[in-house]
Write a structure and sequence with these properties.
By secondary structure, this protein is α/β, with parallel strands linked by helices. Helix content is 43%, strand content 15%. Strand 7, helix 9 and strand 8 form a beta-alpha-beta unit.
Length: 388
Amino acid sequence: MKTTPISTPYDWLDRALASIHKANWYRSTQTVSSKAATTAIVDGREMLMFASNNYLGLAGDRRLIDAAIAATEIYGTGATGSRLVSGHLALHGQLETAIADLKNTEAALVFSSGYLANLGTIAAIAGARDLILGDEYNHSCLKKGSLLSGATAIDYRHLDLTDLTAKLQENRAKYRRCLIITDSVFSMDGDLASLREIMDLAQTHDCMVLVDEAHGTGVFGDRGGGLTQALGIQQDLIQVGTLSKALGSLGGYVAGSAKLIDYLRNRAATWIYTTALSPADTGAAIAAIEIIRTEPQLRDRLWQNVEFFKQGLQNLGIQAIADDSPILAIEVGDIPQTLQVAANLRKNGIFAPAIRPPTVPTPRIRITLMASHTQAQIQFLLQCLQAV
C-alpha cells in the first residue's frame, strides 16, 4: 500500500535547491588543508593558488604566526565579551592606533569582520529620512547595510559619474542627509572607483562618503593606506576595510574622524553586541600593518607580478575586464563554458574558480595575484589559459 509523503514546512527547500541547480548557480566548498601560500592542497591535491585575496602573501608569514601565538599566550584564545563589557583588550587599542596611522585619520574602530563593519556603520549613520546612493556593483555588505538602515537606497550605474550626478540632482533635496557609498577596488571586476570625482560631487551636494577599501588596503598608496591614499584624498570621509585580505588576518575596521568613531562606539550595533576580535587575529593584524608600513618592496613585487601577467594576457590576445589591480577577471562565455574552463584549469593544477551569477551579472574566471607568486608560476598560468 502506497503512503502519501508527509508534508512539512521545509518542503520548499527541495524546490529551491532544484532551481539553484537548474540555473547552474549551485556552489559547494573545496577543502584547503595547507597554510596560505602560492601553492595549496585543495581537496587533497596540490595546486597553484590564483584565487586568494592574500595579496602580499602575509597570511602565511612567520612573523604574523608568531604575533598570533604571542597574543594568544598573553590573552588566551578569545576576547570572551563585547568591547563595552569585558572584551576590550589593550591589544585592540594598539591595532586601532596602527590603523588610524596607516589611513592617516584621527581614529579607527575595529570590528569582528569587514561585513559587520559595513552593516553596523551604514545602519548607524543613515535612517528613514536619508538617501543612500551606491554603485550598482558594490559588495553585498554595502547593499545589505543600506537596506538595514531603512534609508532610501538607490543604485547608480557602475562607475557612471553622469548617472550619479543626475540621481543627486533629482533626489538630494528631498532628504535630510545623503550618503554616497562605493568600493574603492571592485572585488569581482578589479576596476577602480573615481574617488576624486565622487568626493567633488559629495562636496557640491553636501553628502557624506563611505569608501570600502577592502581590496585597496595594503595594495595601493606609498604606505599601503589604500586607493584614497594613492589619490591623495584629504577630504573628510568614512573609510571601511578588512584585515582579512592584504593584512592576512581577520576582522574589519572603520577609520575617520574622532567624532565619527566616538559616535559608532555608541550606535553601531554590530560592534556593541558582538564579541571582540580574538587576540590572535588582533596580534597578527598589528604585525601585518608594521610590515606593510616598513616593507614597500612587497607592494613593488605585487605590482611587478600584475604587470607581467597583464603583458602575458596581451600577448595571448586575452582581455581582462579591468587591469588596474591584482584582480584580473576574464569572461570566457556563458555559465557552462566558464565552469568548463575552470575545470580544465583545475586539471592542469590551477585553482582559479568560476564566479557566476547571482554574485556577478556575467560569469568569469577571477584571477588574483600575490606578491609571493613567482614569474614561473604566472607563466604556467598563462600557458594553461592559452591551452584551455
